[in-house]
Amino acid sequence: MAAVNEALEEVKYVYKSGKLELEAKSVAELQHLIAKVVAATSKRSVSVIVPTYNEEGNVGRLVEAISSSLESSGRKDFEIIIVDDSSRDKTPELMDRHAASGHVAAVHRLGIRGIFSAIMDGVRVARSDVVAIMDADFSHPPAKIPELLKKMEEGGFDLVSASRFTAGGGIDAPFSRKFATILFNSVIRIVMGGVVTDWTGGFHAVRRDKLLNLSFKYPAKWGEFDLELLFRAKKASLKIAEIPFVYNFREEGKSKSAEKFSFFIGYAWLYGKRALQLRFSD
Asked: Which pTM value belongs to this model?
């Protein structure tokens, strides 16, 4: 019995999509197993990466919205990769249910936490050459995904980022959050320089090989990984473009942030520190 328990504890990743079910001790092992499947089947045109934690109110609606958006734009061979960090609600059950369709890949991470590592694990197991990265709470509108992809294809871009601060973009949120976001992003733009208008939007389409070739140096607690992603992409001379989007304050689920003053202080400290590290210490 002890040996069985030890074996179970070694499993860190469980992957389900269609009739495929895989278990692995590391993301590298899982990536190797999936590569065998891709070699025997067809690749996807795009993989939408969605990290989750306690998103039972959004998972089903989001899968339907992403699927509808991509199908209406003529993209049938997509996959939605939901990467979950052992949610305590019904998220794991719901994502497995949707994974039965084959368009959804449910990736369960056991004993692993972190939004940035969840995103990168999703990218590593993706079965396509292009990945889209978005939040699970509908703050990033699924209807914008085809526009991100179209911009990438027509302009030959390596990374297309959705921006709240270009013409046509905006923020639909409580005043305190909207004001803090605008103010802080303005400061970040001054520190970081360059032509990027939105350094903390978190909504992108990226060429998978280009993203995996970037060397990230700093751990991330919240969305400060976005600063490093855009900084590394710019430093690597990737071809970058932006399209506008309107950020919608989350509809359901437990937010990764809060409308408390203490949150804004922590947010400013983490993002400000990361911006200064990247700009002056890297």
From this structure: 0.90
